[in-house]
Design brief:
Blueprint lengths: L2 H6 L10 H11 L1 H49 L7 H11 L3 E6 L2 E7 L8 E4 L5 H14 L4 E6 L8 E7 L1 H53 L16 H52 L7 H27 L10 E4 H12 L7 E6 L5 E4 L1 H22 L3 E10 L2 E8 L6 H5 L16 H12 L3 E8 L2 E9 L16
Length: 498
C-alpha cells in the first residue's frame, strides 16, 4: 500500500478482506466442510461399485424377458401351425415380443420359428448361458457406449418345452434406451442417498468430533494469546474417550505452563533484585576480607583459633556471590578450545579444592603427564573444581576425611574423565535434580549452582556429564569430551541407581 493510500485509509481496511470474503474461505478450509465433501464423495464412489453389477444384471434381465416373450410367441405359432399362420399375426407376435426372429435348437437341429420378412445383418452375438460376471459387465458397458441401431443375436436357455437353447434377433436400441433410463434413476437415487447419508454422518461426526476439536483448538489459540490468564485454561468435559483424554491432558499441560511461567516471572524479578544485592554484597565481603586479614597479626590465641573459620566463611560467601552472578548471565562465553595439558590442570584443581594444611583429604591423580584434552582450559577448570569441592566437602562433613581421585582415559572418539570420592554418596532426592539450580544440592543449605554451571559448561563443549555411580563410600562422576573432529565416545551405562 502506498503512502497516499495509508493516509486515506489509516485503519488499513482497503487491504483487509471483508467478513463475507473470509467466511467462505474459512468454511472451505474447515474440518466440517471437508468431512461433508469426503462423505458425499465416498458414498458416490460406493454407488459406482454398486452400479456396475446392477446395470449388468438389468441388461441380462431385460434380454431374458425378450427371450421368454419370444418363446411364448413361438408356442402360439406352433399351436396354430395346422390351420396356418397369417403373416399379419406373425408380424404382430414379433412386434409384441420386440424381436425380429426366433430360433430354437432341439433334438440336435436348429429350427427357425419366427422371422420378419426383411433381416438386417447381425453385428454382435451374445450368449447368456454361463456368462461370467465380468463378461456381463463388459457387454453392458459395450451396449451403453456402442449400442443403438444394431441388430444383435442373443442366446439363452429355453424356459418352456425344453431344448438346448433359444436364440433371438433384436434391435438393441430399446435396450440401450432402457439402460439409460435405469442409469438415470440409479444416479438420482445415488445422489439422494449420498446427500442424506452425508448429512447424517456429518451431523453425527460434527457433534462427536468436529465441535469438540474446534473447542480444543479455540482454547489453544486463546491460551497462547495470554497464558497467564487462569480463565483461559481448558475445562475438560466428562468424556472417557480420546477427546476427553486430549482435553484433560491439555488442561494439565496448560496448568503446568502457567505454573512454569509464573515461577519464571518471579525468578526473573528475584534475579534482578539479587543481582543488585549481590553486587553490593561482594563489595562488603571484599572489605570484610581485607579487614580480617589484619587478624593474622594479633597474637591472641582465641583470635588465632577463630580467624581460620572466619576466613573460610568469608571465602564461601564470596564464592557463593560469584557463582550466583555467573549463573545469572544469559549464557556463558563460547569455549575457546585448544589442546590443554590435563595433568597440570588437575593439579591446580586439587590445590584449589583441598586445603594445603589439611591432611584428612588424600588426592590420587591417574593421568599421564603427556595427556592432553581438546577443551577450554578455564571452563574445564571450573567444571572440575566444582565437582572436586563438592566431593571434599561431602567427605569432611561425613567422617572427617577420605580420598579424592581424578583420572582420564582416552577412548576412541575423545576423552573420558572421572572424579571419585569416598564420601557417603548422594541421597536419592538429590540425584533426581542433580544438575538443576536451586534444587539439585546434596548439602543442607546448598544452592546447587555449582553442578548446574558445570553441566552448562560441559554441554557447551558438546560433551556429557553424568553421575556414574553413587553408593556409600564411592561416588563417581564421568565427563565425556569430544575430540578435535567432534567425535565423542559412547557413554557407559549409569550405575547411579544402585
Amino acid at each position: 500500500m502506498s503512502e497516499e493510500q495509508d493516509r486515506d485509509d489509516p485503519q488499513g481496511t482497503a487491504a483487509r478482506p471483508s467478513l463475507q470474503t473470509l467466511l467462505p474461505r474459512r468454511l472451505a478450509r474447515s474440518l466440517s466442510a471437508q468431512l461433508l465433501v469426503l462423505t458425499v464423495a465416498f458414498v458416490m464412489l460406493a454407488e459406482v461399485f454398486i452400479y456396475v453389477p446392477s446395470i449388468a444384471n438389468f441388461r441380462a434381465t431385460w434380454l431374458m424377458d425378450r427371450i421368454n416373450a419370444a418363446q411364448l410367441a413361438s408356442l402360439a405359432v406352433e399351436a396354430a401351425a395346422e390351420r396356418g399362420v397369417m403373416p399379419e399375426l406373425e408380424a404382430e407376435l414379433l412386434r409384441n415380443a420386440e424381436v425380429k426372429a426366433v430360433a430354437l435348437k432341439r433334438d440336435n437341429r436348429r429350427e427357425l420359428l419366427l422371422a420378419s420378412p426383411m433381416q438386417d445383418m447381425i453385428v454382435a452375438r451374445y450368449d447368456l448361458r454361463g456368462a461370467t460376471w465380468l463378461e456381463l459387465c463388459y457387454d453392458a458397458f459395450e451396449t451403453l457406449v456402442f449400442g443403438g441401431g444394431r441388430t444383435v443375436a442373443v442366446a439363452g436357455s429355453p424356459r418352456f418345452r425344453g431344448g438346448e437353447f433359444i436364440e433371438i434377433v433384436i434391435d438393441d436400441t430399446p435396450l440401450r434406451q432402457a439402460m439409460f433410463v435405469y442409469s438415470g434413476n440409479v444416479l438420482f437415487l445415488s445422489i439422494v442417498i449420498s446427500i442424506f447419508t452425508a448429512a447424517l454422518v456429518f451431523l453425527a461426526l460434527n457433534r462427536a468430533l468436529v465441535i469438540p476439536m474446534m473447542r480444543i483448538t479455540e482454547n489453544m489459540v486463546r491460551f497462547r494469546q495470554q497464558p497467564e490468564d487462569a480463565s483461559r485454561v481448558m475445562l475438560p468435559s466428562q468424556r472417557r474417550d480420546e477427546i476427553g483424554t486430549a482435553e484433560r491432558e491439555l488442561a494439565a499441560m496448560q496448568g503446568e505452563i502457567r505454573q512454569a511461567l509464573r515461577q519464571k516471572t518471579r525468578l526473573a524479578a528475584l534475579g534482578t533484585a539479587v543481582s543488585k544485592i549481590n553486587h553490593d554484597l561482594r563489595n562488603i565481603l571484599a572489605s570484610a576480607q581485607l579487614i580480617s586479614d589484619r587478624l593474622t597479626g594479633i597474637d591472641d590465641p582465641q583470635v588465632q583459633k577463630l580467624a581460620p573459620r572466619l576466613f573460610t566463611s568469608i571465602d564461601r560467601a564470596i564464592q557463593l556471590a560469584t557463582d550466583t552472578m555467573k549463573f545469572g548471565k544469559a549464557e556463558e562465553a563460547p569455549p575457546r578450545k585448544q589442546f590443554v595439558p590435563l595433568a597440570d590442570l588437575v593439579h591446580e584443581v586439587c590445590d584449589a579444592a583441598v586445603p594445603a594444611d589439611d591432611t584428612r583429604i588424600r588426592t590420587e591423580i591417574s593421568i599421564d603427564p603427556e595427556e592432553q584434552v581438546f577443551a577450554d582450559a578455564d571452563q574445564l577448570f571450573r567444571v572440575l573444581l566444582n565437582l572436586a569441592r563438592n566431593g571434599v566437602e561431602a567427605m569432611l562433613e561425613a567422617d572427617g576425611g577420605g580420598t579424592l581421585s581424578i583420572g582420564c582415559e582416552m577412548v576412541p572418539g575423545g576423552g573420558r574423565l572421572y572424579i571419585a570420592d569416598t564420601g557417603p554418596g548422594l541421597p536419592v532426592s538429590a540425584r533426581a535434580h542433580l544438575f538443576e539450580p536451586f534444587v539439585g544440592s546434596a548439602r543442607k543449605g546448598g544452592t546447587g549452582l555449582g553442578m548446574a554451571i558445570a553441566a552448562d559448561l560441559v554441554r557447551a563443549h558438546g560433551g556429557i556429564i553424568r553421575l556414574h555411580q553413587s553408593i556409600p563410600g564411592h561416588t563417581v562422576f564421568h565427563i565425556y569430551l569430544p575430540g578435535p573432529d567432534g567425535q565423542m565416545a559412547e557413554p557407559e551405562a549409569d550405575l547411579a541407581a544402585e
